[in-house]
From TrEMBL:
This is Farnesol dehydrogenase. Belongs to the short-chain dehydrogenases/reductases (SDR) family. Pfam families: adh_short (PF00106). The keyword Magnesium does not apply. It comes from the Eukaryota. InterPro entries: NAD(P)-bd_dom_sf, SDR_fam. SUPFAM superfamilies: NAD(P)-binding Rossmann-fold domains. Keywords: Oxidoreductase. It comes from Vespula pensylvanica. GO terms for molecular function: oxidoreductase activity, acting on the CH-OH group of donors, NAD or NADP as acceptor.
Length: 251
């Protein structure tokens, strides 16, 4: 990870949970992390936490709703003007809705796809434009899900969430091909965790007894997967990393 010290990372959905832990872990290795989310107060708390630990990295908290393209573009404009480049992009922001597709709302359909798919495409496009001009190897990491590989194993009604994650699986492959064909020095990694113990679990509409029986990952365990992918040698690309709790059984 030494080669990433002092480099610039952008982490979406960084206010809580997986995103916040990833940003904190990157700061431990000396990265300058632009942490974006809708809740600026939570991002400020993250910055304070990192400063209190006297970590070598730095957090730049910035408010951004990734469902709005203009706000994403403003973030990249700021990065280009103030920091010069972006070396690592962690597409983490995502939403989940506990409802059936067959009687769901169109509003929720659109919200899921806007945040879980379109925003990632926009961030990836803008990051590649900056990374392609850098002398440093770039790395794009998308926080996917096991539901993006095996939707039939998900018995809970999560609307278009699994569909959106399948889209991420396909997007990673397409972007990797495009980057290779253009001869760019950029890696693309998909990290697909099982159920993670975060605030998102509250959206599962499960009883506390059922939740207590679930085998779940911690946000730190997912963040360690990010560090693993980043710490491989420049010649090694981790295409897909599936992380689940030992003997996980999905509801």
């Amino acid at each position: 990870m030494e080669r990433w010290s002092g480099k610039i990372a952008l982490v979406t959905g960084a206010s809580v949970g997986i995103g916040a832990k990833i940003a904190e872990e990157l700061a431990k290795y000396g990265l300058k992390v632009v942490a974006i989310a809708r809740r600026l107060n939570k991002l400020e708390e993250l910055k304070t936490k990192v400063e209190a630990q006297k970590l070598p990295g730095k957090i730049y908290p910035m408010k951004c709703d990734v469902s709005k393209e203009e706000e994403i573009l403003n973030i990249f404009k700021w990065i280009k003007e103030e920091l010069g480049e972006v070396n690592v992009l962690i597409n983490n922001a995502g939403i989940i809705v506990n409802e059936k597709i067959i009687d769901g709302t169109t509003e929720n359909f659109r919200n899921i796809m806007d945040v879980n798919v379109i925003a990632i495409a926009i961030c990836t496009r803008e990051a590649v434009r900056l990374m392609s001009k850098s002398k440093t190897q770039g790395h794009i990491i998308n926080i996917n899900s096991i539901s993006g590989h095996d939707a039939k194993s998900i018995k809970l009604p999560f609307s278009l969430y699994p569909s959106s994650k399948y889209a991420i699986t396909g997007m990673c492959e397409s972007v990797r091909n495009e980057i290779m064909n253009d001869g760019l020095d950029i890696k693309v990694t998909s990290i697909s965790p099982g159920i993670v113990k975060t605030d998102m679990v509250d959206n599962f509409n499960l009883s506390q007894d059922v939740i207590n029986k679930l085998l779940m990952l911690s946000d730190k365990e997912v963040a360690e997967g990010v560090i693993y992918a980043l710490s491989r040698s420049p010649n090694v690309e981790v295409n897909e990393l599936i992380i689940t709790p030992l003997h996980q059984s999905l509801p």
